[in-house]
Design brief:
The complex is a heterodimer of chains A (239) and B (364). Chain A has 239 residues and is mostly helical. Helices cover 73% and strands 0% of the residues of chain A. In chain B, helix 5 packs across helix 6 and helix 12 runs antiparallel to helix 13. Chain B: It comes from Kibdelosporangium persicum.
Chain lengths: 239, 364
C-alpha cells in the first residue's frame, strides 16, 4: 500500500505534469511510437492478409508470421540497434514485428470467414474480384480485423516501454529511469500511466468498432423503433 | 433461349462432371435440372454464367457464344439465386436488392426505388427494406434473394436449389410465388433441384441427370413421369409416379353426383340419416353434418365435421382423388371456379376415369 501511496504522490506532483519530460509529453511520445508501428504494421499486414484471404493461397504465411511472436522483443531491439545505431528506426521496426502477426491473422481469418455463399452470390451477380474484396469481404471481415487491430495496438503500446531502454522517450522513461535510480514510486507511477493509456485506447477502439462495423453484423442489430414488431424479443428481454 | 452444345466439364483430376450435354432451354419457360447429387446439374447451371468454365463445347444464349462476353458483364444480365440466399449481411435488405442496378451504373435513388418496388413484387412489405438479412426468416431471405436477382430485369434467371434450405410449408409458398411471378414476368428460368416433386411442380420442361453428368431424359414433367426413358429415370421419379402423373390429367368429362344439402342458418328439426353437406348462403361448402346428428332449430356451424379438400372443376385429377379420399363422407366435394358447390364425386369414379385414360399409368 505504501508503495502505491508513493506512486500516487509521484503521479500527482505538479512537476510531472509540465515540460518535455512531464507525463503529457511522454504520453504523446509513447502514443507516437505506438501509432507509427501499428500504422506501418497495417500497411504491410492488411493488403497481404486481404489477398491471401481472398485467394485462399498462401495461408501458410499467416502461420509462419505468427512465429514472429516467439522472438524475444528486447533481444530483437538490441540487435537492431547494434545494426542501425540508436534511433527511432530500430525501435519502430521491433514494434512493427510485434504488430504484424495479430493484424495479419485478423485480416486473413476475417476475409476467410466471410460466408462463401455470400461471395459466390456477389460473383454470380457480376461483381469483379476487386470489388468483391473491397465491398463485400472487407466490410464483413471488419469485426475480426478490428479485433486484430486492438490486440496489436495493446501489445505495441505495452511493449513501446522498451524505447526508453535505447535512450528514446515515451512512458518507458519513467519505468526505466525509476529502476536505475531505485525510485520505485516513479517506476510504478509510470506503469500506472501506461495501464490507464492502454485502457483509454482500448475504449476508443471499441468505439471505433461500433462506428464502422455494419449493424447487420452485430448479434442483435434491432433498432429501438423496430422493437415493436418483434414482441418475442421484448418478452425475452423483460423476462 | 439457352443452348448447350456438346458441353463437357472435366476437372484436372479426371472427374467428368458434365458429359457432352446437348440441351435447349426455351425462352420464357421454367426448365428444371433434376438428379441425384453429383449428377452435374449444378455444374451445368453454373457454366451458363461462367461461374464454371466448360472444358469443351459451346453454350449459346440467343445464338451468341457466352465466351464472347466478359464474365462480370454476362452475369449482370442473368439473375442468380442460390440455396443459402447469399445476402450481404452488412447491407440492408433494400441495398441488397439494389446491388445489380448499382453495379450497372444506376443512380442510387433510382436503384433504391426499384428495389422497394421489387420487395412488394416478391410479397414483402417495403418497410422490410430497412432491416438487415440476419433479422429475416429463411423464407423471407429467399424472397429477398429472388428480388435481388430480378432487380435489373434480366431475361434469364439461374436458380440453384433456391428453396432447398427452407421448411416444406414455406417451400410450397415460395414455389407458388415463383409460378405467379413467372406468369407476370415471362423469364427464361433454369432451376436446379434434387427434389423430383419440386421439379414436376414448377417445371415446364424437366431435364433428369444421372451420375457422371449424363442427361438421362429431357421432356415435359408429364412425359418424364409417364414414360421414363430408362430404369434410372423410373427409379428416380419414384414408385408413386403414377399418382404424381395424375397432376397432369385434366378431368374433362367428369360427371358428378348430387348429395343432400342443407343451408346454414335455416331452421331444421330432425335427425339426419346420411351425411348432409352444409352450404352457406352463397353456396360455398362449410362442412358435413354426420349421420345421426339431431338438429333442432337453426343450423349452426357447431355440429359440422370439417370437409376434406375441395376439388375445383377443370383442374387435375390428382385434386379430385385427394378430395374424395380426404372427405369424411367418402365423397369429394366438387366446386366451380367461384368455390360454389357443384356436386360430389367418389374415389371409384375418379379411378374409373383414370383407367379410361390410356396414358394415365405407365408400365413399370
Amino acid at each position: 500500500m505504501n508503495s502505491f501511496g508513493n506512486a500516487f504522490a509521484w503521479l500527482f506532483a505538479p512537476e510531472q505534469w509540465s515540460g518535455p519530460s512531464g507525463i503529457p509529453a511522454r504520453v504523446l511520445e509513447h502514443l507516437g511510437y505506438t501509432a507509427l508501428a501499428v500504422l506501418l504494421g497495417l500497411v504491410i499486414a492488411l493488403p497481404i492478409g486481404m489477398v491471401i484471404g481472398h485467394s485462399g493461397k498462401g495461408g501458410f504465411l499467416v502461420g509462419a508470421v505468427n512465429a514472429l511472436r516467439a522472438i524475444p522483443e528486447l533481444g530483437l531491439l538490441i540487435l537492431l540497434v547494434l545494426l542501425m545505431g540508436i534511433g527511432l528506426l530500430p525501435v519502430t521496426l521491433a514494434l512493427v514485428v510485434l504488430a504484424i502477426p495479430p493484424l495479419l491473422a485478423g485480416t486473413y481469418s476475417g476475409i476467410r470467414n466471410v460466408d462463401r455463399s455470400v461471395v459466390d452470390a456477389a460473383r454470380g451477380m457480376g461483381m469483379k474480384e476487386g470489388r468483391i474484396l473491397m465491398r463485400v469481404e472487407l466490410p464483413n471481415a471488419l469485426p475480426l480485423i478490428l479485433g486484430g487491430l486492438r490486440a496489436a495496438t495493446l501489445q505495441v503500446l505495452a511493449t513501446a516501454t522498451i524505447a526508453a531502454y535505447v535512450s528514446l522517450g515515451g512512458l518507458g522513461r519513467f519505468v526505466i529511469d525509476g529502476l536505475y535510480l531505485r525510485d520505485f514510486a516513479q517506476t510504478l507511477g509510470g506503469t500506472i500511466v501506461i495501464a490507464v493509456v492502454a485502457l483509454a485506447l482500448e475504449g476508443l477502439l471499441i468505439l471505433l468498432q461500433r462506428l464502422v462495423v455494419s449493424r447487420g453484423l452485430r448479434r442483435n442489430p434491432t433498432r429501438r423503433r423496430d422493437r415493436t414488431v418483434r414482441p418475442v424479443e421484448i418478452a425475452v428481454e423483460t423476462a | 433461349m439457352i443452348e448447350f452444345r456438346d458441353v463437357t466439364k472435366q476437372y484436372p483430376d479426371g472427374t467428368v462432371a458434365v458429359d457432352k450435354l446437348n440441351l435447349t432451354v426455351e425462352a420464357g419457360t421454367i426448365t428444371v435440372f433434376v438428379g441425384p447429387s453429383g449428377c452435374g446439374k449444378t455444374t451445368s447451371l453454373r457454366m451458363v454464367n461462367r461461374m464454371i468454365e466448360a472444358t469443351s463445347g459451346t453454350i449459346l444464349i440467343d445464338g451468341k457464344d457466352i465466351r464472347d462476353s466478359e464474365p462480370a458483364l454476362l452475369r449482370r444480365g442473368m439473375g442468380y439465386v442460390i440455396q443459402q440466399a447469399g445476402l450481404f449481411p452488412h447491407r440492408t435488405v433494400l441495398d441488397n436488392v439494389a446491388t445489380v442496378p448499382l453495379l450497372s451504373g444506376w443512380d442510387k435513388r433510382k436503384a433504391r426505388a426499384r428495389a422497394a418496388e421489387l420487395l412488394e413484387t416478391v410479397g414483402l412489405p417495403a418497410e422490410m427494406g430497412r432491416r438487415y438479412p440476419v433479422q429475416l426468416s429463411g423464407g423471407q431471405q429467399q424472397r429477398v434473394g429472388v428480388a435481388r436477382a430480378l432487380a435489373a430485369d434480366p431475361p434469364i434467371l439461374l436458380m440453384d436449389e433456391p428453396f432447398s434450405a427452407v421448411d416444406p410449408v414455406v417451400r410450397e409458398d415460395l414455389q407458388n410465388e415463383l409460378l405467379r411471378l413467372q406468369g407476370e414476368l415471362d423469364k427464361t428460368i433454369v432451376f436446379v433441384t434434387h427434389d423430383i416433386d419440386e421439379a414436376v411442380r414448377i417445371g415446364e420442361k424437366v431435364a433428369v441427370f444421372r451420375k457422371g453428368g449424363v442427361l438421362a431424359q429431357y421432356g415435359t414433367p408429364a412425359d418424364v413421369l409417364r414414360y421414363p426413358a430408362d430404369e434410372f429415370v423410373a427409379g428416380f421419379v419414384g414408385r408413386d409416379r403414377g399418382y404424381r402423373g395424375l397432376s397432369f390429367l385434366e378431368s374433362s368429362g367428369i360427371s358428378v353426383d348430387r348429395v343432400e344439402t342443407a343451408k346454414l342458418g335455416k331452421p331444421r328439426a330432425e335427425t339426419v340419416a346420411d351425411w348432409v353437406l352444409v352450404l352457406d348462403s352463397d353456396g360455398h361448402p362449410c362442412g358435413w353434418l354426420p349421420p345421426g346428428t339431431s338438429v333442432d332449430g337453426s343450423l349452426t356451424r357447431e355440429p359440422l365435421v370439417a370437409g376434406g379438400s375441395l376439388y375445383t372443376t377443370g383442374t387435375s385429377l390428382r385434386g379430385a382423388l385427394d378430395a374424395a379420399l380426404s372427405s369424411p363422407a367418402s365423397r369429394g366435394v366438387v366446386v366451380d371456379e367461384d368455390g360454389k358447390y357443384v356436386g360430389v364425386i367418389t374415389a371409384r369414379q375418379v379411378l374409373d376415369l383414370i383407367e379410361g385414360h390410356p396414358q394415365a399409368v405407365s408400365k413399370t
